[in-house]
Amino acid sequence: MMNDDIEKVVYSEEQLQAKVAELGRQITEDYKDAKEEIYCVGILKGAVTFYTDLVRQIDLPVHFDFMIASSYGNGTSTTGSVKILKDLDYDIEGKHLIIIEDIIDSGTTMNYLMKYFRERKPKSVKLCSLLSKPSRRTVDVDIDYCGFEVPDEFLVGYGLDYAEVYRNLPYIGVLKPEIYA
Length: 181
Ligand code: IMP
Ligand code: MG
Prior knowledge:
The protein has helices at about 15-30, 50-55, 110-120, 175-180; strands spanning about 5-10, 40-45, 65-70, 85, 95-105, 125-130, 145-150, 155, 170-175. By secondary structure, it is of the alpha/beta class. The protein has a six-stranded mixed sheet with strand order 4-3-2-5-6-7, with helices on both faces.
């Protein structure tokens, strides 16, 4: 079974739900007086699980939008270039954007996307990332809402994949070394 490939659990379902609830409360508080519309932009596919849990903890009317950006192959480190495979559906000029991402690693993807969003003149842009690996950063990214800072280990589950598998694990964990072999 899939569970047998996991060496250790890093964040359990309960820990993830508690953190997501905390982030949702904070976002609700920060945007409760916003006059312009709020667009929650999920970065597919990794953020999808976090996204669907988080938006249900935001007690404000929000719009859904999604992007697909790719900077990874099937390995475990970035190739450096970012490609937009699916753009936003809506015109975001004058709107509040909350970008929802699974993990900021080297920062390459989000550094690129943040510039891209700002060029479209939203009223504001904030970044909410479940995970951050500060020790891996090669370009600067400001994370407004960060769930957990994690050490330099390759993580899977709760949306995060290895070669497109393990996204549906309900927790976040580390794979056994022989899986990469
Ligand atoms: P960055 O551009 O290097 O910051 O990479 C960001 C993307 O790399 C994330 O959105 C993930 O898709 C992927 N990524 C980075 N670290 C991990 C990890 O530990 N597990 C799974 N995917 C990761
Ligand atoms: Mg991703």
